[in-house]
């Protein structure tokens, strides 16, 4: 993770550390911090919040650098943990011996298919019975691609032959297969067309209806896969999806290729959604359950 966040850390965070570590915060230091946070794509809202929190803590005291950094770490961790209603352990958390259905959403290119492959692999490794539903039926290549990932992780993929089949029909079949096989985690790939919000909404709500009807006791999550390299632009996409899907969390991908790791803070602050996983590479192992502690340590240590 530390390696994955190298670019973000080198680009901005080290300078931030140097300024905060000097304490006390005067106006010039605050201005500098503000501009650094904005450069790291932390976003205006989250930046304001961090600055205010820092000022409150450090006001008038001459704070030793170690203590100032510790304050900053606490502020960031608390921000990242805020959307979690219960205390959260950084582990893989589907309920055992129950059907968990995770809808994986996001625009094409965000890393949806790769993420599904990685989660399937993690599920297998963690002893879950896993299945993939290839409901991105719009792109012919998507089904093939998800099958490749399925075979890499040894997880079966339920797909419909033929192009442009109804995604909800695939979900229907996938749930039937999941119930018959006592699957614990069903990952559902969904279409990533953002051009038409209404279509997206209709499709996702139809899938939801099928799930409610066919698997009323399943624990359903809706995860948005978001490309971290897009920084603030990705957030606009995220807003569209959060209107169309009842999102329960975000998977932030491509953190290895960007200095915009600060977008994690913007996602949490602006969307009120927890980050659930982070992707930091193209390989099957390059996905981690998110931990605010790990993340902040990797950034600021
Ligand atoms: P989809 O269209 O959303 O299904 O996106 P894909 O899963 O096909 O991924 C698009 C590209 O991003 C591929 O080249 C992936 O290898 C790459 N990718 C996905 N996740 C990551 C990541 O965490 N880090 C890096 N560096 N590349 C990634």
UniProtKB/TrEMBL annotation:
It is a peripheral membrane protein. Residues 274-287 form the SRP54-type proteins GTP-binding domain. One of its GO terms (biological process) is SRP-dependent cotranslational protein targeting to membrane. GO terms for molecular function: GTP binding; GTPase activity; signal recognition particle binding. It catalyses: GTP + H2O = GDP + phosphate + H(+). It is found in: Cell membrane; Cytoplasm. Keywords: Cell membrane, Cytoplasm, GTP-binding, Hydrolase, Membrane, Nucleotide-binding, Receptor. Its EC number is 3.6.5.4. GO terms for cellular component: cytoplasm; plasma membrane. GTP binds at residues 106-113, 189-193, 253-256. It comes from the Bacteria. The keyword Cell membrane applies. Part of the signal recognition particle protein translocation system, which is composed of SRP and FtsY. Involved in targeting and insertion of nascent membrane proteins into the cytoplasmic membrane. Acts as a receptor for the complex formed by the signal recognition particle (SRP) and the ribosome-nascent chain (RNC). This is Signal recognition particle receptor FtsY. The lineage of its organism: Bacteria, Bacillati, Cyanobacteriota, Cyanophyceae, Nostocales.
